[in-house]
Hints:
Blueprint: E1 6-7, E2 22-33, E3 36-37, E4 51-66, E5 72-74, E6 76-77, E7 83-84, E8 87-91, E9 108-114, E10 120-125, H1 129-132, E11 149-150, E12 155-156, E13 159-165, E14 170-171, E15 180-184, E16 187-190, E17 200-203, E18 207-211, E19 219-224, H2 225-228, E20 236-237, E21 243-244, H3 253-260, E22 274-278
Parallel strand pairs: 2-19, 14-20, 15-21
Antiparallel strand pairs: 1-2, 2-3, 2-9, 4-5, 4-8, 4-10, 4-13, 6-9, 7-8, 10-18, 11-12, 13-15, 16-17, 19-22
The chain binds calcium ion (CA).
Calcium ion binds next to strand 21.
Amino acid sequence: MKSVTVGLCCLLSLGGCAAPSSQDISITFALKSGDHPVSCSQPVAGLGKSATLTDARLYIHDVVLLDDAGHATPIALTPSPWQRNAIVLLDFEDASGTCRGTTATNNAVVGTVPAGRYVGLGFVVGVPSSLNHTSPNAEAAPLDLVAMGWSWQAGRKFIKIELDPEGGVVRAAGKPGATWNLHVGSTGCVGDPFKGEAVSCATPNRVSVRFPAFSADADQVVLDIAAIFDGTDIGRDGGGALGCMSGPDDPDCLAIFRQLGLKPASNSNPPPAFRVVPKG
Ligand code: CA
């Protein structure tokens, strides 16, 4: 099936089609665990122990197509409740079964690009600094979600994945918890945006993902939960917040940040958590 359609062709020409000036584009994303589909209705496979999903959402921005010289062309997003100001919310949970979020879901980036030959894809995980430190109550969708807000750093959760492992999460100190929380966001932030102060963060925790070979027609981008948690026992917490909430000293963030391409910096791009697979 051909998903790229040609815009503006023939509108002005009586003698034949002019060269198309723009083309529609749709980039498909999927949440998997290894090769297994992930849903709110059955345990997540491939994590080393049984666990159920309770939340799985992330923001991305600056989605671009790459030509064979590596030059980036931004996708002009079609405004919708899922995407605005170059920001897209991907939402893989539907509030059914064990999930606790919203019923609607979104697995696509939709927009237009100038007509051309594109061979690759790029995007940045997170919300741009200029739009990150705002109140969800004052913003339009997709930045209006209190559940994706992050009051302790006056920003957003860039990635939110929450899992309930069977038997709970044993803590290094204190009572066991029910949920292993992965919240990725900027930390070390100073400045109070609600007093009109500029905010700067010592650790932005935004990751740029690049796929030099990607076809919007044939391929999809997979966010792989098993890869994110490779090297992590979700039945245990080593200290700090329950799971990894991006705390600089949280031992549970080390392996996960490596898999996401965050500090300690990984030389691989795309990072292990993201890969391209054929649609279907
Ligand atoms: Ca922790």
